[in-house]
Each structure stands twice: as C-alpha cells, then as structure tokens.
Amino acid sequence: MSDNNKAGPEIRVGLLVTCLVDLFRPGIGFAAVKLLEDAGCVVSVPSQTCCGQPAFNSGDRANARAIAVQVMDAFANVDYVVAPSGSCGGMLARHYPELFEDDPALSARSRAFAAKTHELVSFLVDVLGVQSVQAAFPYAVAYHDSCSGLRELNVRDQPRTLLASVAGLQLREMKDSDVCCGFGGAFAVKYSDISGAIVSSKTACVEASGAHTLLAGDLGCLMNMAGKLARDGSKIEVRHVAEVLAGMTDAPPIAAAAPEKA
Fold it and tell me: What's the pTM?
C-alpha cells in the first residue's frame, strides 16, 4: 500500500482469527495481518476460542455469555477488534450487547466492545481510510455479499473499492450477489434440503457471471459454495477477498472441507 494509506503505528488491532479460518484456511489470517500491518497497524493475535455464535444461534444463552466474557477479556487491551468475517464480526458488534441487556455492568462493557469491533475490509476502508492496495490478480472475479456482513455490518461497497485497485482484476457483478448462499451455520445442517436448493441457485448465478474466481468475506459461505461448485464439476476457483487484496494467492483455491496445511 502507499504511504498515504498508513494509519500510524499506535493503532493496536487484535485479530479475531475465527474458528473456520484457524481450522481450514489459516492463510486468510496471515493475509489479514499483512493488510493491517501494511496500513500501519500494530497487530496482535490474543489467545482465543469461538466467538460464541453457534451457542447464541442455538438458544444457549448461558454458554454464549460465558464465551463472550472470555472474548472481551482476551481483547481488552487493543484499540480495535478486527475479524476477516462478517458473521463473527456481526456476533461481536451486534449480538454481544443483546446478551447482556439485563446486566448493567456487562451491558456497558459489551457496548463499548461492540463499538471497537469491525469486519476486516470495512475497517480498512471506513476506519483507516485505505482506498487502494498493491496487489495483482489478472482474472475476472464475482463477489458474493455474505448475509451477516451486508445486513448487520453494512459491508458492500468497501470490498469493491479495494478490488478496483487490484491490477488486472475485472469485477463481474453477478445476479443476486446479495442473496444468501444457503449456509447459515446450523441452518445448513438442520434444513439441508432447503440449504441445498439455495446454494444451487447461488452457484448458477456464479457460473452465469463468467468469472474465473468467486470471492467473499466469509469462509463459511465460501466453503459452502466451493463444495457445490466442485460437486457440479465447475472450474471456478473460490478465494477469500483478503487473499486477493493482500496478494497472497499462492495457496490452492478453497475446497469444501479439506484443511489447508499450515
């Protein structure tokens, strides 16, 4: 990135790696660190576990609250919490305050924590003012707007702003880019037939775009769509947007569920 994109060395960012990135695609975490450090941030990766979203979505508020306190403790000493995921970011920024509405002390703390939490690309653009990256990707890409990032964190224009600066990249907007891919975490397990029908419609739109690569900001969505594309014999590659923006595309494309070797 150019010097005018640098945020200054005193901005301390804690990276919430997310479970899926840690287990299946650690390269996304390294790409996030590179993007943040290139923008002038001091990045740390505190010891962390799940953000609590599976428990929260399943109605297990007791365990969700316990996990939330653990996460807030882990990231207490940073200026910002950043996640390469609109889903996990939305949990921290939108749902942590809901968990503690009946607890005055933790309510105030969760609101303050939510206020310093951001999805990765929106943090770069909206908070740090980054408008361009030094990366090249000479392919046509389609971008999927993941539900949580779009609807809970208003992430839409930010990735497109940065992708426009990637040398050689052509963005081909696909039909229904803002429609769910059918994953939804536990939804895909509980309602597999409905999930399968939704992802079939989504991948049809991806194919119709004529793109070489499908990008998005949530690994769960990407793995879901990658699985369907692979089952259909598609040649379309699937990657997290951070990998392209950071110029870290040497790793094989994202697969449905095969762990990437660290």
Answer: 0.92
